[in-house]
């Protein structure tokens, strides 16, 4: 009997082994892994949204918990770190190999994001950044007013939410002064130019009457659904919040920055001059390029690209019939009045003509079209230190357009020959096209639809890659437009040199300005704004070229591998249909696609 039981046991185990290897069992394991991963991503998104209610509101969704959480506070860091460590533990229990390919990509992105977040907090870098948080380009002191200007408040509840957010923002402003004081006490000081640029923004804010203040903007555009009594009450509430809350908070910044912080600021323009700055910059390069390239490697790449593009510029100068040398051609572009618009409407009309022309040829290169429209609007107040402008996507339901906010104060420094390239980068097929496609794709998890922060090299690399498609899309038909394209590509190559020069090689601000003036046709004022942006946002400027070169490399690989079977539309689908990815995740995806097509 004992022998029979043993034989039955062996036979049963064999049967179970065979069953486990069957297609049905494999499908069950895949379903189980997929359901657990989907649940983990959903809970992660819910937790992230709870910690970032303002980001949730930007997507047109109402926060269910706190309406404003200080992203620089210690409580935020503790909670976020605990959350991400728990998510990594849960992720390790899910068999990646059991997931379908699309979910494997999401798995890789999820792990990448969580690991980088934990590294940032556990290494102390998050705390260091928050002790030196001034940022004229993307600081919340300018980002929140932008939000209040563009937010679509449609009900009394929306307006009440805005008031609560405004109260939280005022508290953030006050707490930032305390963090700056703590940073000073511990030896963390930012460059003088960063402080003076932020101070200029603060003073511009305080100079605005309440009625023109962006924080008051919701009270100037009530929808018809809100009655007179509620309008009167809400208008008074917004006026009081700005007068009694925001203005005193900004004034506290003004006094503190001018009298206490500026005298202690560093003369050096780069992170090398700040305590722990070298470590911060190394992390910035990893975060923005999603590679392990060192500052020295990136610098050498930039020098090489500058030389290559400069040679093409010489050929373009000759094609334009200009008899002087390249520096003289730069000066011609800077000073010829016919190269500049004087009225914002003329520039906006030009962008509309470019987009209409591009869409005629888009089906030759792309298989899809997003629902969201694209518009160009003037940059909101407090924008003079923020460069030419920036793109902001609309809500996922395409009820509002994606918008390029253009700094109309810089009309006289943005040459018309560069506008086709700028439209490609910011609009179609650049940022607007890429972000709208992925936001509107409800089959993707929110993880891939909305989380763009760790993939600057992808998003900006795609924008620069989109510029390279101009000739195929019917643009760059005269030598000056082509030179404008090269000029903007040169800008991105120069960025590799000056960003690493400023933050790692101890360049001073003037050295960086001189290098950019010598290699582009940009006006002095534009160059100064650009360099100050790199000083404030270390590493971000390196993402453009690093990302674009990787995309060109992958396209070349696909062309060589597929030969006559290569279809540019299919390649673009592969690059775009899973959202913004770290470059190594994107490369692995393209390699799998090519292997399957072999």
Automatic annotation (TrEMBL):
Listed InterPro entries: DUF885 (IPR010281), TAT_signal (IPR006311)
PROSITE patterns noted in UniProt: TAT
Name of the molecule in the record: DUF885 domain-containing protein
Organism: Brevundimonas naejangsanensis
Keywords: Signal
Keyword DNA repair: no
Cleavable signal peptide: 1-26
